[in-house]
Amino acid sequence: ATCGHGCKYGECMGPNKCKCFPGFTGKTCNQDLNECGLKPRPCEHRCMNTHGSYKCYCLNGYMLMPDGTCASSRTCAMVNCQYGCEEVKGQVQCLCPSGGLQLGPNGRTCIDVDECSTGKAVCSYNRRCINTFGSFYCKCQLGFELKYTSGRYNCVDVNECVTNTHRCNLHAECLNTQGSFQCKCKQGYQGSGFDCA
Asked: Name one GO biological process term (predicted).
């Protein structure tokens, strides 16, 4: 079976037919499935969609059970957690619904972990890290775009001279470079390439 368009988060099962891994959807399995929007809802109280998955958490005064349901807890209500809590050996601890969130100094609210600045996130060559609340993703560097080539997704240089997205002067030539472009005034003209006289 060959899938000309590729299957980003899935397997090729037939001519241009992808079988997506759990948590992903779309013709090329390139879209995250928002499990929180499914019927029946996967979580009893609150649901947080994550890349390829989801997390359940409970309203204050409730405790998250192993099966994803929320059980009433007087001790949880007293602690006043933002995202519900769990009891471990009689100790009440507030929870954060994602590894990209950490408990704040008050031990009740969750604050974002900036994986990009802490170095926790590793993006491949030609990609830059974008922090999101509770997570991060890798995006192509400026001057590059995501393209499906030779069986996988790669960040490929954008040829600004061909796509006509350069700002070269009418009397200048555009020269493509990796991730950028240069402008050079034509013969008989002089200047920066953006201005030629």
From this structure: cell adhesion
Start-to-end CA span in the chain (Å): 58
Least Cα distance to 132 among 155, 104, 105, 113 occurs for 113
For residue 196, what are the contacts with CB-CB under 8 A and spacing of at least 6? 169, 170, 171, 172, 185, 186, 189, 190
CA atoms within 13 Å, Cβ hemisphere of 57: 20
* pLDDT number for residue 24: 92
At 81, which helix (H) or strand (E)?
Answer: none
Residue 1: per-residue pLDDT: 67
C-alpha to C-alpha distances, 26 to 5, 10, 140, 173, nearest whole angstrom: 12, 10, 21, 41
- Is the confidence at residue 184, as pLDDT, over 90? yes
